[in-house]
Write a structure and sequence with these properties.
Two copies of one chain form a homodimer. Chain A is of the alpha/beta class. In chain A, 42% of the residues lie in helices and 22% in strands. The first copy, chain A, folds into two domains: 183 residues, Isopropylmalate Dehydrogenase, CATH 3.40.718; 153 residues, Isopropylmalate Dehydrogenase (3-Layer(aba) Sandwich), CATH 3.40.718.10. Bound molecules: magnesium ion (2 copies). The site of one magnesium ion has 2 residues of chain A, from helix 10. Chains A, B: Catalyzes the oxidation of 3-carboxy-2-hydroxy-4-methylpentanoate (3-isopropylmalate) to 3-carboxy-4-methyl-2-oxopentanoate. The product decarboxylates to 4-methyl-2 oxopentanoate.
Chain lengths: 351, 351
């Protein structure tokens, strides 16, 4: 198969972890006789520095014409504590999601047997957890009208949803639940918010199209509790953008394997694959960042092109590296740790 | 001291847990020669059933003229799955907070040595946790303009904050931090939301008035992670209404003692004291609900009237009941459990 993959390394540790995923993908291409053409493009703070825009038009052209996008991370701390900054790296992320129509973020939370004791939760609480949070990604308060009034002394943001946006996301959730344990949980704040009531009534109306799926409804604050108490209770969770932002990050730490969690952002034409961790600027350039989440994101990419053998091969070699202790310092138990580039080399060699 | 206390039992288990707090307060009044006049009033679903309003004017009159309000819980499941319901119990809560000007919710999270193994978190993660979340309670998206457009197919909610609202809450946070470990964390989503940027710039401008307080800033999704990973890292957290709703509930389960956590809602004239747990309708009327959070909320009430001996006496008797196993079924280890009313009787007798 020929694959054109847009390569957006981004900021912080992005370039380093992306490099390892490229090594692994190239090894896969070599072994299975695929032809991958990498199309590097600028994004985030790196793009602001180069062309003054966190998601430049040239980058969008490359992504829109690619078969898939492999993405590192964006964000730089010099923007965080500067409320006056006009252009922010994260705006690139939002713009990219919107322009590529990436309407759903797929975030699995599962455990690795060898890493389960790294979880902050007790083993009996977390063992066997296998859930997916499907977060709406192009609507809600991150994209609604915002601004200031009263000489800057009043600020507002608007959370808006249309029935169509909710249906599109929920449909994906129902379909996903059908391939799994057939349990869907819609998370909202329907006891207060009008947009949440639209979510709930829309999902309720769709229930009859999926009679096999058992649907439940929870308030977001209750879910924030239950994810810590009984994560095993969930199969597929669907929720709006801001709630999903908070809950996916909370879910990411309960497995104890945050550095390993991949994700996909699904669009109607092109999908994007990225590690869930951020740009981790403190570690940038030190060759110490864990590349496994990016490597596992590449496995999700292959799987979506129905290259299941290739995806399995990547997962096998990742598991092997964990079992043999070929890991970066965040996962090293007493023993030796390896550099980011060494882990990437080892993975590629063992494909 | 003479105390007029408005007594809002509310829905579900509210009346039962309130009854036990009244017994304990009456025992305190008797022992320390105070005169408590209880002023019962309707709220929540109970008030909707009786007068069609979840926070009737008569109830507000009683609260506004009381020295303090002791509150149970409100909410009834028959409203949750009915998006068409025009009047909801929770609207009573919002209306009460607004009309009484309860602008800050004080939510401590701490551990009880005898209950620490009930935490879903590993002992080393949670032991020693002692944090307070100060949640803004009368602004933000729960009170902003909301509605429908396009024949009901688009719904919106508005998150609005003024500089004054933020200053009032932050001032309380700085003052609270000064009496504790002098660390304040402002939680927002300033990388995306305009209202969050107003939060951040307002708190940043106040830093110089409290030079001893070490201030940090975090994004809400990061805090949702870190509360599970390293709750000991926090001292006082200040945040807006919706974020606070989610984070306080998440924080409530990490100690393993959710059924015991009290809270206060601070107003300029009158404050309200309530357990953090909800109305727990499944347990209503069964005499099995844990009354300790309500009893400990009464302790916070006495403390705010500078009746420290009385507050200490209540905490002493609660700890004694835990140590001696005079507990409801949620806390019973193998052994015997007691009914709600039996625990209340025992506490009152031991004052
Ligand atoms: Mg996030
Ligand atoms: Mg809540």
């Amino acid at each position: 198969m020929k694959l054109n993959i847009a390569l957006l390394a981004g900021d912080g540790i992005g370039p380093e972890v992306i490099d390892q995923a490229v090594k692994v993908c190239d090894a896969i291409a070599n072994k299975y006789k695929h032809e991958i053409t990498w199309k590097p493009a600028l994004t985030g703070a790196a793009a602001i520095d180069a062309v003054g825009e966190p998601y430049p038009d040239e980058t969008h052209e490359i992504c829109a014409n690619a078969d898939a996008v492999l993405f590192g991370a964006i964000g730089h701390p010099r923007f965080d504590n500067d409320p006056s900054a006009k252009v922010r790296p994260e705006q690139g992320l939002l713009k990219m999601r919107q322009k590529l129509g990436l309407f759903a973020n797929v975030r699995p939370t599962f455990t690795f047997p060898s890493l389960i004791d790294k979880s902050p939760l007790k083993r009996e609480r977390i063992e066997g957890t296998d859930l997916i949070i499907l977060r709406e990604l192009t609507g809600g308060i991150y994209f609604g009208e915002r601004g200031r009034k009263d000489d800057g002394n009043t600020a507002f943001d608007t959370m808006t949803y249309t029935r169509g946006e909710i249906q599109r996301l929920a449909k994906k959730g129902f379909e996903m639940a059908m391939t799994r344990s057939k349990r869907l949980c819609c998370v909202d704040k329907a006891n207060v918010l009008e947009s949440s009531r639209l979510w709930r009534e829309t999902v309720q109306a769709m229930e009859k199209e999926y009679p096999e799926v058992e649907v439940s409804y929870e308030f977001v604050d209750a879910t924030a509790m239950r994810l810590v108490q009984w994560p095993k209770g969930y199969d597929v969770i669907i929720t709006e953008n801001l709630f999903g932002d908070i809950l996916t990050d909370e879910a990411s730490v309960i497995s104890g394997s945050m550095g390993l969690m991949p994700s996909a952002s699904v669009g109607s034409k092109v999908s994007l694959y990225e590690p869930i961790h951020g740009s981790y600027p403190q570690a940038a350039g030190k060759d110490i960042a864990n590349p496994l989440a990016t490597v596992l994101s590449a496995a999700m990419l292959f799987e979506d092109f129905d290259l299941k053998l290739e995806a399995e091969d990547i997962r096998r070699v990742v598991n092997k590296s964990l079992a043999e202790g070929i890991v970066t310092e965040d996962l090293a138990e007493d023993g030796k740790s390896y550099r980011t580039s060494e882990v990437g080399d080892w993975l590629a060699k063992n494909i």
